[in-house]
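Example record for the data management plan.
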Amino acid sequence: MRRVRVLVCALMLLFVLLLSEASTSKAASQSFQIVAVQYKWNPEVDYASPATFKATVDSIMQNVMSQVDPNIPTLVAFPEDIGLPMLFIENDIDILRSATTFADAIQKLIERHLWDVTLFRLRYGVDWVRALFLERSGAMARAYLDTFKEMAAKYRVYLVAGSIPMRPVNEDGTLVNDDSTVYNLSYFFGPDGDLIGYQKKVNLVPSEQYKDENGNYGLDLNAGTLEELKVFSTPFGSVAIAICYDAFHYKVIWELVKKGGEILVMPSANFGLWTREQQSDWLNSAWLATRHPYGLKWFVNPMMVGALKDITFEGQSSIGVNWMLIPDRPQMNYMDLDPITGFLSIAPSKDQYEIVVARISREM
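Corresponding structural encoding:
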């Protein structure tokens, strides 16, 4: 009988331990971490080669991991246009270094690859800048996909790789469609390194169009459509990506909400000074998108800062929550505005490299 009692007690203890472990595991699954990488341009150095860029991102990811709990699922987001200087990443960085303006660098790059760019121009009936992107997309895709795919797998994180203007490609680098389209694309990788999917930017700013309002030539990108917008499932919620200007548009946000989006990722590159007016206007994007009680629950807005030749970028990266989930949360806001509810964490600077982190509970 004594042996039986001992066995029963042992089984009961084992059951309690298993129950406790299951409870802990369930609690952990209810939490996740969001990280916004505020990337500061140093294109003449960071984009010298694919290996150099990968080493730069690897260093950033080491910093990220030093600030998060490795046992909790983590979503890391990089800013818009982080892939743009990859136009020069294979043996052409000298052009970027010597150019006075970014437009001048584009012109010199076309001249260096004139024969190949001309072939794309004639084949697809497009203008010079679009032909350049068509010709360069192969090298850009290799550097971009290889870097972020490896970083997601190495650090076991969900990773939104900012955005890159290029032809849409599959995970293996093959073209989705062999046509003349070039989009501002944001790729999303899982912790196994596999591609979860990508999002196209729908609403282009003037500099992304064929010509801006002053008649200056832009990047000549194609716009995505509302119907093409996707929401990506993860164990901690559905991720909805709206590339910068898209998050200012109600139709984009509503489409993402209808498709079940919960976590809004807004990779951004604000080319302009971070004035009080800019800060006030920025509240009309991700912060406003998480104000509806039945809409998006959380947001992360990583910002590009620094200078890309003659173009200055400023902004404060942020992470926020639908105020209905935690109405008594401490208030905060961008640097020149009065504190409000809805933010969980904001970068202290507008022009420096920053890592912004927030731990999220789905019970919020």
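Summary line stored alongside the record: The chain has one domain: 32-361.
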